[in-house]
Protein backbone atom coordinates (compact mmCIF):
# COMPACT_ATOMS: atom_id res chain seq x y z
CA UNK A 1 0.00 0.00 0.00
CA UNK A 2 1.43 3.36 -1.00
CA UNK A 3 0.64 6.56 0.81
CA UNK A 4 1.44 9.96 -0.53
CA UNK A 5 0.51 13.20 1.18
CA UNK A 6 -0.40 16.10 -1.05
CA UNK A 7 -1.11 19.66 -0.04
CA UNK A 8 -3.42 22.02 -1.92
CA UNK A 9 -3.68 25.40 -0.31
CA UNK A 10 -4.18 24.76 3.39
CA UNK A 11 -5.87 21.37 2.86
CA UNK A 12 -3.72 18.28 3.32
CA UNK A 13 -4.90 14.77 2.57
CA UNK A 14 -3.65 11.24 1.91
CA UNK A 15 -4.10 9.31 -1.32
CA UNK A 16 -4.31 5.51 -1.23
CA UNK A 17 -3.71 3.54 -4.41
CA UNK A 18 -5.77 0.57 -5.67
CA UNK A 19 -6.33 -1.19 -2.35
CA UNK A 20 -10.09 -0.66 -2.08
CA UNK A 21 -9.60 2.08 0.51
CA UNK A 22 -11.17 5.37 -0.42
CA UNK A 23 -9.20 8.57 0.16
CA UNK A 24 -10.38 10.90 2.87
CA UNK A 25 -10.76 13.66 0.27
CA UNK A 26 -13.64 11.66 -1.24
CA UNK A 27 -15.52 11.90 2.05
CA UNK A 28 -14.79 15.61 2.29
CA UNK A 29 -15.96 16.04 -1.30
CA UNK A 30 -19.18 14.09 -0.61
CA UNK A 31 -19.88 16.11 2.52
CA UNK A 32 -19.36 19.36 0.63
CA UNK A 33 -21.51 18.29 -2.31
CA UNK A 34 -24.27 16.99 -0.01
CA UNK A 35 -24.46 20.34 1.76
CA UNK A 36 -24.89 22.43 -1.39
CA UNK A 37 -28.66 21.94 -1.66
CA UNK A 38 -31.59 20.75 0.44
CA UNK A 39 -31.77 17.57 -1.68
CA UNK A 40 -28.72 16.08 -3.37
CA UNK A 41 -28.75 12.99 -5.56
CA UNK A 42 -25.62 11.09 -6.56
CA UNK A 43 -26.53 9.36 -9.79
CA UNK A 44 -25.33 7.79 -13.03
CA UNK A 45 -26.79 9.28 -16.19
CA UNK A 46 -27.69 5.89 -17.72
CA UNK A 47 -29.22 4.31 -14.58
CA UNK A 48 -32.99 3.73 -14.71
CA UNK A 49 -33.34 3.70 -10.90
CA UNK A 50 -31.51 7.03 -10.73
CA UNK A 51 -33.89 8.41 -13.34
CA UNK A 52 -36.87 7.18 -11.32
CA UNK A 53 -35.75 8.78 -8.06
CA UNK A 54 -35.00 12.09 -9.82
CA UNK A 55 -38.51 11.92 -11.30
CA UNK A 56 -40.02 11.24 -7.88
CA UNK A 57 -38.48 14.36 -6.37
CA UNK A 58 -39.22 16.57 -9.37
CA UNK A 59 -42.82 15.29 -9.38
CA UNK A 60 -43.12 16.41 -5.76
CA UNK A 61 -41.94 19.90 -6.72
CA UNK A 62 -38.42 19.47 -5.34
CA UNK A 63 -35.43 20.67 -7.36
CA UNK A 64 -32.57 18.41 -6.29
CA UNK A 65 -28.92 19.02 -7.04
CA UNK A 66 -27.90 16.04 -9.16
CA UNK A 67 -24.34 14.81 -9.50
CA UNK A 68 -23.92 12.41 -12.41
CA UNK A 69 -20.90 10.40 -11.28
CA UNK A 70 -20.18 8.98 -14.73
CA UNK A 71 -19.64 12.56 -15.92
CA UNK A 72 -17.76 13.81 -12.84
CA UNK A 73 -13.93 13.86 -12.85
CA UNK A 74 -13.81 12.18 -9.40
CA UNK A 75 -16.92 10.08 -9.98
CA UNK A 76 -15.28 6.67 -9.51
CA UNK A 77 -13.74 7.65 -6.16
CA UNK A 78 -16.97 9.28 -4.99
CA UNK A 79 -18.96 6.19 -6.01
CA UNK A 80 -16.62 3.89 -4.08
CA UNK A 81 -16.87 6.09 -0.99
CA UNK A 82 -20.67 6.17 -1.24
CA UNK A 83 -20.79 2.38 -1.48
CA UNK A 84 -18.70 2.15 1.69
CA UNK A 85 -20.98 4.65 3.45
CA UNK A 86 -23.97 2.51 2.45
CA UNK A 87 -22.23 -0.56 3.86
CA UNK A 88 -22.00 -2.34 0.50
CA UNK A 89 -19.34 -5.02 0.30
CA UNK A 90 -18.60 -4.14 -3.33
CA UNK A 91 -16.77 -0.91 -2.49
CA UNK A 92 -14.30 -1.44 -5.33
CA UNK A 93 -17.03 -1.88 -7.95
CA UNK A 94 -17.33 0.49 -10.88
CA UNK A 95 -20.87 -0.60 -11.80
CA UNK A 96 -23.78 1.71 -10.84
CA UNK A 97 -24.69 -0.60 -7.92
CA UNK A 98 -25.87 1.26 -4.84
CA UNK A 99 -26.92 4.30 -6.83
CA UNK A 100 -28.78 6.55 -6.57
CA UNK A 101 -27.72 7.83 -3.16
CA UNK A 102 -29.86 10.63 -1.73
CA UNK A 103 -28.96 13.25 0.87
CA UNK A 104 -31.67 15.44 2.41
CA UNK A 105 -30.64 18.37 4.56
CA UNK A 106 -27.02 17.24 4.34
CA UNK A 107 -27.81 13.83 5.84
CA UNK A 108 -27.68 10.58 3.91
CA UNK A 109 -31.12 9.02 3.49
CA UNK A 110 -29.74 6.12 1.47
CA UNK A 111 -30.35 4.43 -1.83
CA UNK A 112 -33.54 3.94 -3.84
CA UNK A 113 -35.00 1.39 -1.41
CA UNK A 114 -34.75 3.73 1.59
CA UNK A 115 -36.13 6.69 -0.36
CA UNK A 116 -39.11 4.70 -1.64
CA UNK A 117 -39.78 3.21 1.80
CA UNK A 118 -39.75 6.72 3.29
CA UNK A 119 -42.11 7.92 0.58
CA UNK A 120 -44.53 5.02 1.12
CA UNK A 121 -44.56 5.27 4.93
CA UNK A 122 -45.06 9.05 4.81
CA UNK A 123 -41.77 10.12 6.38
CA UNK A 124 -40.25 11.60 3.18
CA UNK A 125 -42.41 14.75 3.03
CA UNK A 126 -41.59 15.81 6.63
CA UNK A 127 -37.88 15.30 5.88
CA UNK A 128 -38.18 17.50 2.80
CA UNK A 129 -40.09 20.17 4.73
CA UNK A 130 -37.52 20.20 7.54
CA UNK A 131 -34.72 20.59 4.99
CA UNK A 132 -36.52 23.47 3.28
CA UNK A 133 -37.02 21.58 0.02
CA UNK A 134 -40.83 21.78 0.21
CA UNK A 135 -42.77 24.87 1.19
CA UNK A 136 -46.21 23.33 1.69
TrEMBL record:
UniProt family annotation: Belongs to the glutaredoxin family. CC-type subfamily.
Keywords, ordered alphabetically: Cytoplasm, Redox-active center
InterPro entries associated with the record: GlrX-like_pln_2, Glutaredoxin, Thioredoxin-like_sf
GO CC, alphabetical: cytoplasm; nucleus
BP-aspect Gene Ontology terms: anther development; negative regulation of DNA-templated transcription
PANTHER family: GLUTAREDOXIN (PTHR10168)
Compartments where found: Cytoplasm
Domain Glutaredoxin: 39-109
Protein name: Glutaredoxin domain-containing protein
NCBIfam families documented for this protein: GlrX-like_plant
Pfam families: Glutaredoxin
